[in-house]
UniProtKB/TrEMBL annotation:
InterPro entries: bL21-like, bL21-like_sf, Ribosomal_bL21, Ribosomal_bL21_CS. Belongs to the bacterial ribosomal protein bL21 family. This is Large ribosomal subunit protein bL21. Residues 113-127 have a biased composition (Basic and acidic residues). This protein binds to 23S rRNA in the presence of protein L20. Residues 103-142 are annotated as: Disordered.
């Protein structure tokens, strides 16, 4: 089963037992975290959320907190004697996807959606058609 999930403001394509690096999360090494904002699931059939799939969540375990490679930020203005050199190391969390669960809820939602469309169609059939407008002719006398 695949899912697209939003973690710390970014979207990731995940599957079970996958390891990935995400922006720093709260929690200690070995803690379990759950992500409820699942945007899409693929399990034989594709389920797309609007904006998120209800009843589906992704559980993960925090493996480690690490730092990314250093990125050098260098600014210079020519002929002005202005040079600034800074470095940055992004704080990351390594997680492992434990499970993607709760896929039964969207199927129930589809059934209720189908029922509501059938009810709307039935109401449209029973609704009366508007009466045709009668045009009044004016008697003009000269």
């Amino acid at each position: 089963m695949l899912a697209i999930v939003e973690i710390a403001g970014l979207q990731y394509k995940v599957e079970q037992n996958q390891k990935l690096f995400v922006n720093r999360l709260k929690g200690e090494k070995g803690d379990k975290v759950s992500f409820e904002k699942v945007l899409l699931t693929i399990d034989g059939a594709i389920t797309v959320g609007a904006p998120a799939v209800e009843g589906v969540s992704v559980q993960a375990e925090i493996l480690d907190h690490v730092q990314a490679d250093k990125v050098i930020v260098f600014k210079k203005k020519r002929r002005k004697g202005y040079k600034v050199k800074n470095g940055h190391r992004q704080q990351l969390t390594q997680i492992q996807i434990v499970s993607i669960g709760g896929a039964d809820a969207p199927k129930a939602k589809k059934a209720t959606k189908k029922e509501t469309t059938e009810e709307v169609v039935a109401e449209e059939k029973t609704a009366k058609k508007p009466a045709a407008k009668k045009t009044a002719k004016k008697d003009t006398e000269d």
